[in-house]
Amino acid sequence: MATVISSQTKPRPPAHPIDILNSDTARLYTHIHPILVLSIYAFQFPSIVADPVPALIKTLIPLAALQIAYVAICLPPTGGTATPVIDKKKPGEKKKVEGSLAKTIVPAFLSLITATILSTPLLTATLVLFGAPLTTHHAHTLLAGAHISFLSTLPLVYVHGVDGATWREIIALLRPVDEVYGGMIGTVVGAWLGAIPIPLDWDREWQKWPVTIVSGAYVGWAVGKLLGGLVFKGKKIMFE
Amino acid sequence: MALRTVLLTVANLLIPVAILIFATGFFPYKPFMPGLAEYEKLGWEQAMGWKEESVPEAPFDKLVFMVVDALRSDFVFGEDSGMSFVQSLIREGTALPFTAHAASPTITMPKVKAMTTGSIPSFLDVILNFAESDTTSTLSTQDTWLAQLRAKQGGKLVMYGDDTWLKLFPGFFERADGTSSFFVSDFTEVDNNVTRHVPEELLNSDWNAMIMHYLGLDHIGHKAGPKSPNMLPKQKEMDGIVRDIYSAIENEDHLSKTLFVLCGDHGMNEGGNHGGSAAGETSPALVFMSPKLKDISQHMEKVSPTKPKDKGGEFEYYRMVEQSDIAPTLAGLLGFPVPRNNLGVFIKEFLSFWPHAADRIRLLLRNARQMKMIVEATYPNLSFEDESKAAGNECEPPLSDGQDLACKWHGVVDTMSTTSRHLTAEHRIDQLFWFLTAAQEKMSSTASNYDVPRLIIGTVLTFVSVLVTLFTLPSLRRITPPGVAYTLTIILYSVLMFASSYVEEEHNFWYWATSGWFFCLFISKSRKEWQSKFVFHPAIMLLVTHRIIRRWNQTGQKYAGADDIVHSGIFHGNTSFILWALVGATYMDITIRISRHVARSILVFDKGSSSEDSQAVDANRFMGVIAVLPLGATAFVFKLAFTARDAPELTYGINQGLIQWVEDLSLVDVARMVFAGTALSAVWITISEWKRNRDRRGEGSGDLAIALFDLLSLFLITQTKAQNIPLYLLFRFQFFFLSLLDLTPAAITTTTLLLIQTSFFALGNSNAISSIDLSNAYNGVSGYNVIAVGLLLFLSNWAGPIYFTAASSLLLSSPGRPRRNIAMNEVDSRDWVQKEREHLERMAKSEEEGRKRRESSEVWGRHVGLMTLWVGVATGSVMVACTVLRTHLFIWTVFSPKYLYAMAWGIAFHFGGTLGLGSLVWRAGRW
């Protein structure tokens, strides 16, 4: 079937993949970051299995901190691109670092708020649609939604803002792949695949709700981020 | 094109052939030894000092055999049991309690066979259980303790209760009163029918065996589970009957030598169902009672009530024996030869009845000789002679099963032949039990009985079919989402068939895959056109509907009995009007739809060919409603009347006068009226559409297909339990949303595959025998008609998949859309009309596509090809799993039932549903 995007009222500029900031720190940290996040998750894993709700809340805080650090260090905030800041300033200016950090840390926190208030309920609802328990385990599902949201949505909000048209493209998988977008797709697919082990009769504690979903999301996010940033960067997802 | 059709036909014909060949290898028909057993020559007369034909004196001459259906061990022995009298007998020592292990399949008929013949019934009996009138499954020609007792001098049998016994033993009983377990809502009448005969029979002295089979407890289980408030009163009622019979045995002279056996034929799981192999299902109680037992029970455990054993699961009370042990034990206690096909072992606690060691050995030796004959027949190449082989090399490991048994038998022979005084009787008895238990274990596990070459031939043929189907499919150059989803689904399914827990929880896979696919549809559609209210996007609505559907019935093993929408209580008791409002809405919807078709048909006959594009006018619509309303109303009344009897708890909220009125109706007649009315409407509409088609040159609109689909829906909901009928309203929504999505043929096929499976499980089915729903198999059938009942049984259990098969044919041919002629150059090209223009353009385009699709058989051929590929892969993977895992612990409990289901899917559903009904609706869509 032919794609009919031509009918849109105002033409949109072609979308570009997100490049990470042009600094050594950014290039380095973007690879350290998933290792840190996964390490913290792995470290917390036994307590998440033992008692999901408090452990998931506890893990949410370092996750949020790390994600904020990641977007602030590595990614261009909404409207910006990867290179402009350094080029425009004169060399040797002292306030450069603080200024750029101040410019990034505020949108990073705004993204955190958006991810908490807007995206978490939406993702929780999606989890319920996909079969999460509706009458019990409310806190479990909400926290799973929060983790998925912090992993997938927070960086996306930071780089794309809350522009409706962009988000439509994001949901419709029309954006070119980059590490942020790849991370989001990986998180969602990973969380979905995470449901597979639940019905097995191994009778392990980690099979209970929502441990496998959250674990799938973390692993999927790391894989998606890696593939999106390195292998498939700039490619568009072809559907048919 | 022609070659493709030929190949597809070959592939389709290969499937049933492969399935049947595999089945004959997988469920081999067990040959049984005909004729009644007689006391045979024992041997070792001189060594043991017994006479050749002599029999140890039997302590009992009469038997009261009381079966309480689904009497799980804890219902008698547990601390919460209501059977205090039985427990007092256990404490006194006049009752010997056991837990009798009932091998899967835990259904009444095979279990009665196990208890009476002592054999382990094969899975073939499950099929025969549903085709009960089949004469090969009766036990009239087999050796059972009933036949033995009847053959005794003056032997007369009486039987009261479940008519399974009357079917299994035709002409055996002097007096009998069978009750059928048709309505499981009947908790009292079925049992009163049995109990009313008891006092009278206890006064008669002419019988030597009285069999009773109570069904009420099982019905309570099916209806409300083991924790139902009705359970305890029922146990007390059963306890009272035991008390009556036991005191008669104590007081009446002619009953003084009566053995009283109380047992369950199987247990029940936490959901109250049975058929599978959960601990609860396989652990019925078994109690032997008689005042005489006090003599032998001095040294036995007499604690009651008690707790289950620490080591053996939740339901193992006292000692665990096999259910087949009942037959040889009765043979010894009542003095008759052990039935020929017996695989049971005499229960050793009863040996104390015979003070002389020689008598004990004689009993066991007869048991062992009888069992040895079966072993000999199974391993014809091995020697089971009575000659002692000193230090033969056959006992050296490694041993095959047969060699091991031969070795053990020769051990028996050795100990019997030795005259050494050092060899005590205990030694011989131990040796005999050693052989007996080993033979029981080996012979019961049917692992050795597979016909592996046939398994392989069947599997290979299936894969040939898969390969042939692959050739008929167009080359896969373009990777499309439906193609990927389809491929991933069948690959993942084949892998999961090797995991026993995923066979039990298969619904989870389909629910999961369907959610993913609907979300994928949402993304796919959003790429083309963004809907501002995306929450109400058809794909999202599909997802929402799917979420409700999957919670409707809890199914599978892991969470059996957990809460679902049906059991949440909103449909029960006084709020049952919610259920009936939904049911009514479903009936109303279908009735109105049918009335439109009838209205159109009236118009056809009214105006003849004068009107080309006939749209019904109001008057005709009104006529249509008038004509169809009786049919819809009758169908609804039938459902209400049936439910009032089958599940009265669902009709409490309904006006009682109405309920009383419907309860007086004859269900068979009303059901026949519904079926006849549906058939008549189908014929009428077909004739009118044929006439309309003939009058109108050129292509048709496919209205006939829609009419047939709506009539089919009416028939299917008639074959569905009331609490599941609202699901068809949801299915209807799904169908509507799917038609809004304008899917490509490949996407329709993938959706069909997923929804067929989802709807099957959503209606409460699973891969366990226990979930087969029999309640709607007798609609409109009086008496017993195997073909009609079998057909209705299939249709009522596969109603959801059949619905979506027809729906997919409709989606593929997308009929019922009148042709629109839009002159594009006349449409205003101003900006604000642009959108509308595109909308019209797209609509015209999709209509054009639908028309093209209908005209070429290519689309249908590809759909059938993909569905055949799916059936081939699914059946093939189940076959490989069954072959590879044939020694798996769960082979009889998980994989064999799955194979039975695969047979039904591969033969009945694929041919009757996809190829038969699907093609019919497809062809009708071209009219």
TrEMBL record, chain A:
Membrane topology summary: Multi-pass membrane protein
Pathway: Glycolipid biosynthesis; glycosylphosphatidylinositol-anchor biosynthesis
A UniProt-annotated Pfam family: PIG-F
Keyword Membrane on entry: yes
GO cellular component: endoplasmic reticulum membrane
Bilayer-spanning residue ranges: 104-132, 138-159, 180-200, 212-232
InterPro entries assigned to the protein according to its UniProt record, in alphabetical order: GPI_biosynthesis_protein_Pig-F
One biological process term in Gene Ontology: GPI anchor biosynthetic process
Keywords annotated in UniProt: Endoplasmic reticulum, GPI-anchor biosynthesis, Membrane, Transmembrane, Transmembrane helix
Subcellular localization: Endoplasmic reticulum membrane
Name of the protein described by the UniProt record: Glycosylphosphatidylinositol (GPI) anchor assembly protein
Organism name: Didymosphaeria variabile
Lineage: Eukaryota, Fungi, Dikarya, Ascomycota, Pezizomycotina
Gene: GPI11
TrEMBL record, chain B:
Cleaved signal peptide residues: none
Keyword flag Membrane: yes
Keyword field: Endoplasmic reticulum, Glycoprotein, GPI-anchor biosynthesis, Membrane, Transferase, Transmembrane, Transmembrane helix
Localization, UniProt: Endoplasmic reticulum membrane
Gene Ontology BP, a term: GPI anchor biosynthetic process
Family statement drawn from the similarity comment of this UniProt entry: Belongs to the PIGG/PIGN/PIGO family. PIGG subfamily.
Protein name, entry field: GPI ethanolamine phosphate transferase 2
Organism annotation: Didymosphaeria variabile
Organism ancestry: Eukaryota, Fungi, Dikarya, Ascomycota, Pezizomycotina
